[in-house]
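User: Quick sanity check before I run a bigger batch. Here is a single chain. Can you write out its predicted 3D structure?
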Amino acid sequence: MHNKTTVTIGSNFLLYPVICLLLIFSLIMVGCRDDENEEEPSVPEVPDVPDYSTIIVKDIQNIPDNFTFDRVEVEVIGLDWQVIETLTFPYENGLIIMDLPTVFSPEVLQKVDRRGGDMGGHWTGTSNDGYALVATLGDFFIFKGDKRVGRIALSNWTGKESSAGKAMIGYQFADRPFSLTGSDNSYYYSDCSFVRGWNMFANINPASGNSAAKILRTTVVPESTLFWRLAESYVY
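Assistant: Done. Predicted structure follows.
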């Protein structure tokens, strides 16, 4: 009887470590399953903001066979409608790559609008931030050596027939986000919001071709329809 009791106690004593190991293993497995079932925190989506600091010009339309040029020159307009910088880019193998400056001193930038009758402001509409400052690209003039031979433009108008409903494109730098509303005798502003940096905007002619209708100014641009063309030739 004594020996039997000793064996039983010894067997139970040996089982304790095994049971403890099984319990620990079970807890680990449950924890792993819980981790697998936990959903990862969702990452908020960041809206895509187009980057217009680099403008690529290619497939220029309306160029006559005997018409040649080797560079494009564009002025940056700032404070008091003055030229604050002149940019020059080569035309090579049918391509122009314009890397625009992205840093400007606030002292050379232009007021965003003309509130208070200040004609030094750029836009005739009203900005939701009167402290915003801008710089704007002028015309894209093309040169052959030192001779100005024409002007190119980005649009969805071929330059022939009616320009009704067609968009004329421009570029503007903003030192902060702002939006424009309102109208004047010739233009009205709708869906016209700028981000910090370079922006593309459009002046869209009335679709009806009615001369009394106003031109829409907007940053909602029909990019898929746009193309570069020789808008003017100074070679006769």
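Residues 1-11 have pLDDT under 50 and may be disordered.

User: Great, the batch can go ahead then.
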